[in-house]
Amino acid sequence: MSVIGQIRGLPCAFMVDVKRAAVRERTTRTDSDVHATRVRRDRGTTAAQSLGSHPFVVLSLVVLAMGKPMARDLQLHEAREDIPNGFVLSGPAAPDTTLNLRIALAPSDTPGLHKALYDVSTPGSANYGRHLSKTEVEKFAAPKPESVDAVNAWLKENNIDARTISPAGDWMAFDVSVSKANELFSSNFSVYKHGGTGMETIRTLSYSIPASLKDHLDLVHPTISFPSPQPGLPARISSISPIVANVTSGDILSFCSGSVTPSCLQALYGIPTTNATQSSSQLAVTGLLDQFANKVDLETFLENFRTDIPSSTTFTFQAVDGGQNNQDPTQAGIEADLDIQYTVGLATGVPIVFISVGEETTDGVDGLLDIINFLLNESAPPHVLTTSYGANEGDFSRMLANSVCNAYAQLGARGTSILFSSGDGGVSGSQFNPKCIKNFIPTFPSGCPFITSVGATAGMNPEAAAFYSSGGFSNYFGVPPYQVDEHSAYLDALGHTYSDRYNASGRGFPDVSTQGTNFEIVVAGKIQSVQGTSCASPTFASIISLVNDKLVAKGRSPLGFLNPLLYSPAGKAAFTDITFGNNPGCLTVGFPAQSGWDPVTGLGTPVFSKLLTAAGL
């Protein structure tokens, strides 16, 4: 796929629930969050279907179910109206299939967590920069003792051995058979197959919990949240010959109109080339889906595009869920190489850590939640976390999205700036969706108000919105306080255009943008060009890391949760407003970029010196 016409619809931001088998181009497999000991694929009529076709038997089964003491106490907790596009029902899951389920207990004080997060993140607050300790955050997130007692009593009653899997004790996990799960939750776990990839997953369209647990148990997962089946590899534009990017400053921006390198970004945004000095100010890069960052590729990249620093400059590695970083050149990942090369190549001297999530994840979102719980358990989490993976918001249930979003709030309160690429499908989601003909599709986690969503631009003089840059308004999360004025101004200017296609009361995204087109990278020893919002997120993360380095050098706290600062008057003044372009999709031209914040490029692109001023430096 080296021809642009073949790849322009592919996203750079990964879909989080894409199974590793799809990445490896296998045609079928069951989700890693479901260890299927036996998935039946009978083409004929199953015994259950045969029984179900007889009215008398159906009535008898209903009477039996109603006679169970547990069933009388159950009430519907979550449900979805239909099967996601592309999936078809294959049949009931085998009763003895083992499911790895998780339950989220209700946190003791979510409003208090949100209040504390804004208190330490809003300029002018008396507590600005006084980030919370691990213990302080866990007090907000931990379930109340009565919730723990109620859930544990229910688990014990049903002979279930659960284990706590989050630092605050708000997530528990257990293994249970399909037959037991169907009984416990009055559910119907079935096998669903995706027609395009052949990937199979076991899900239910609804589940119930005991009425007595309503105020104690937030959700059971994975249940009604479906995986995103199609891989979202960065769009590979072309293979090119090695070039030397360090041209003179007078020629740099004209040179960059055809390809983007670290030198281009340094010239465009005023990013310094001098070494950072603070070893404690770490930048973390998320690695999912067996994407490995190759050190030899990084060395080649630096030899070509950062000749002013040692080509031996490298990164450290951490593993979650058995993660690895295979250094076989044939295993080099486009996404991982991109993210590492542009963080090491831009955040000069900042300690970079690649956190690889392995195949042992059972969080149902390919490690997206496990990596946050991993970082929450650290005594000193990184100051910046950049993630180039995402999904369509509707792939997550509302309760799951809310729970994951609150985990980001916990990490933000600890002082970590959390950045996500906004997606590459315009208004049709995290990748272009040709079946989207009406309602625009927001992405997740970009809709979460506690992270910073990064869109993409293209061109240099002037910059314009990249056509693929996902943006819009969340269906799950309301307008956050820091965005009220910008949100209102944009909708007033937009008028009634598309008013029936998006949620006018939803949190708008992205928040900011940077270049995301024609990025030169090295993969398996070859230089090639890629595009997508996956290019933009590590770029902005590098800029924030360099600001943090200067803050820490002066004995101050890192920026932490960014958005209240970015939307402040000083913060908005630190961006170049992007007023050209749009993000088409769903048979429309999408939202237009315009003066002020917009759901294509956010507040615009950064000016490093002005960000220093906004940070009080």
From TrEMBL:
Mention one GO biological process in which this protein takes part, according to its record: proteolysis
What SUPFAM superfamilies does the record tag this protein with?
A: Protease propeptides/inhibitors, Subtilisin-like
- Which Gene Ontology terms cover its molecular function? metal ion binding; serine-type endopeptidase activity; tripeptidyl-peptidase activity
Q: Output the Gene Ontology cellular-component terms.
A: extracellular region
E.C. no: 3.4.14.10
- Record's subcellular location: Secreted, Extracellular space
The record places the active site at 335 (charge relay system), 339 (charge relay system), 534 (charge relay system)
Q: Which Gene3D superfamilies match?
A: Peptidase S8/S53 domain (3.40.50.200)
Q: Which cofactor does it need?
A: Ca(2+)
Listed A to Z, the keywords are:
Calcium, Glycoprotein, Hydrolase, Metal-binding, Protease, Secreted, Serine protease, Signal, Virulence, Zymogen
What broad class describes the main subcellular location of this protein? Answer: secreted
**Entry superkingdom:** Eukaryota
Q: Which Pfam families match?
A: Pro-kuma_activ (PF09286)
Q: Which reaction does it catalyse?
A: Release of an N-terminal tripeptide from a polypeptide
Write down how the cofactor binds this protein.
Answer: Binds 1 Ca(2+) ion per subunit.
| Entry keyword Membrane | no
Q: What class of enzyme is it?
A: hydrolase
InterPro entries per record = Peptidase_S8/S53_dom_sf, S53_propep, Sedolisin_dom, Tripeptidyl-peptidase_I
User: Which positions are annotated as binding Ca(2+)?
Assistant: 577-578, 596, 598
Is Glycoprotein set as a keyword in this record?
A: yes
Q: Which residues form the Peptidase S53 domain?
A: 259-617
Q: What does this chain do?
A: Secreted tripeptidyl-peptidase which degrades proteins at acidic pHs and is involved in virulence.
Q: Which PANTHER family match?
A: PEPTIDASE S53 DOMAIN-CONTAINING PROTEIN, PROTEASE S8 TRIPEPTIDYL PEPTIDASE I CLN2
Which protein are we looking at? Answer: tripeptidyl-peptidase II
Organism expressing this protein natively: Grifola frondosa (Maitake)
